[in-house]
Write a sequence for this structure.
């Protein structure tokens, strides 16, 4: 009986992991009509990670190319930062490869606010300037792991953990982030807590933060739309 249970557990682990692609690439083809597979009485679009694969014979270098990451992003925003994402929407060849990229620009004292990527670990490389970066571990410790980075330094943010980057200097800063997902997702903490749709009841937030409802009204920010 024990052997049967262990085999069942092993099978569930195998089934729970993401399968590796059985082809070198599946370039996302948004222009072509969806391929259709027929199953019983139902018809379903044949998609791989949400996209139809482009005919391999029609694939070319442009499908794997992106230009413009050398251009500074607009940091004239409330938080003083800008994220330029290079994902499958901009580089169709990234589909099924499990990676994406982003350039993050910071004005002096600019902030990429606390956020999390539910599907990706991030490797951040500072190209210019200096950044205070950090992430917070999960309950119950909630430890802040942080460090000041300078040009050429690299820091890793584990998948799913809340993290941030802050430019404490008087000059602009630039960083390049590599992410272990073609669609990492982003959840900005302030948006999720204060700007949900519909909004979380103020009584819930007041109880959670152990403050008066008036304080919740006072600190509730405008939505922050930056991020990947």
């Amino acid at each position: 009986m024990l052997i049967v249970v262990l085999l069942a557990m092993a099978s569930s682990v195998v089934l729970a992991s993401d399968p590796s692609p059985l082809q070198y690439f599946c370039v996302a083809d948004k222009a072509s009509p969806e391929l259709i597979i027929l199953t019983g009485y139902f018809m379903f679009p044949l998609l791989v990670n949400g996209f139809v694969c482009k005919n391999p014979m029609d694939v070319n270098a442009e499908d794997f190319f992106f230009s413009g990451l050398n251009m500074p992003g607009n940091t004239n925003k409330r938080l003083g930062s800008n994220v330029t994402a290079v994902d499958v929407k901009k580089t169709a060849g990234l589909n099924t490869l499990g990676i994406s990229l982003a350039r993050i620009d910071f004005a002096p004292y600019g902030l990429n606010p606390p956020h999390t990527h539910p599907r990706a670990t991030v490797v951040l490389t500072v190209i210019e300037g200096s950044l205070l970066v950090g992430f917070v571990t999960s309950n119950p410790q909630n430890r802040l792991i942080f460090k000041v980075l300078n040009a050429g330094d690299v820091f890793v943010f584990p998948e799913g953990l809340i993290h941030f980057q802050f430019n404490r200097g008087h000059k602009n800063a630039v960083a390049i982030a590599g992410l272990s997902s073609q669609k990492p997702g982003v959840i900005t903490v302030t948006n999720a807590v204060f700007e949900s749709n519909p909004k979380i009841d103020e009584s819930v937030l007041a109880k959670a933060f152990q403050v008066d409802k008036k304080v919740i009204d006072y600190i509730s920010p405008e939505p922050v739309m930056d991020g990947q």
